[in-house]
Amino acid sequence: KIFKNSYNLKKHNVTEHTERKLTPERQQCKLCGTWYRHLAGLKTHMKNIHENTNDEHRCHICSKVSTTERALKRHIYLNHKCVRKFKCSMCLKAFKRGQDLRVKHISLHTGEALYTCPNCPMTFASSANLYKHRQRLHKMEYEADRQQAIPPHIIKQTKTSTSKVRSFGVSNALANPQIVIN
Q1: Rounded to whole angstroms, how far apart are CA atoms 101 and 107?
Q2: Calpha distance 100→168 (Å, rounded)
Q3: Between helices 127-137 and 139-147, what is the axis angle to 10°?
Q4: Distance of alpha carbon 9 from alpha carbon 167, whole angstroms
Q5: 152-175 and 6-16 helices, crossing angle to 10°
Q6: Where does the sequence pass through the membrane (predicted)?
Q7: pLDDT digits over 119-150, tens only?
Q8: pTM of the full structure
Q9: Beta strand spans in 47-161 (E)
Q10: What are 59-80's pLDDT values in tens digits?
């Protein structure tokens, strides 16, 4: 495997090559319901999607307003630039991201439910359907979850850990652009 920096290499070694494999607990965003494999993914999501900023980040193509500059760049790439190159072998539908095909779309063919409503036993194949379900049928609970303050420690931890990782990764990347293990 090839890694961009030694941080990713170390993380890989801990999760894949230790006697006692660590399986992080999945985390769900309380604001939009998106699931992440571990707390680090949730922290990044909170910072990039839900952190309030006073700046307006408007798409020059369709005028959509994003919450952060990174979210705007992602929007432009996924909605205006990216080609649908991941094709389903069962129905030939194409996707821009491999994870959308592997995780979300294939579940439609297998019948596997990926999302469960926290307020009732209903299950869904997509987070968008869960989101709409909660908005329509569980308005009070949904609004209460949305109004819940973002835990400041998540955003604070993200800022400190991200700056450490970035500074370590950048200097390391300059010295060693690719780290290879066999």
Answers
A1: 9
A2: 31
A3: 110
A4: 16
A5: 110
A6: none
A7: 999 988 777 888 889 989 998 888 887 776 55
A8: 0.36
A9: 57-58, 65-66, 86-87, 94-95, 115-116, 123-124
A10: 999 998 887 788 888 889 888 8
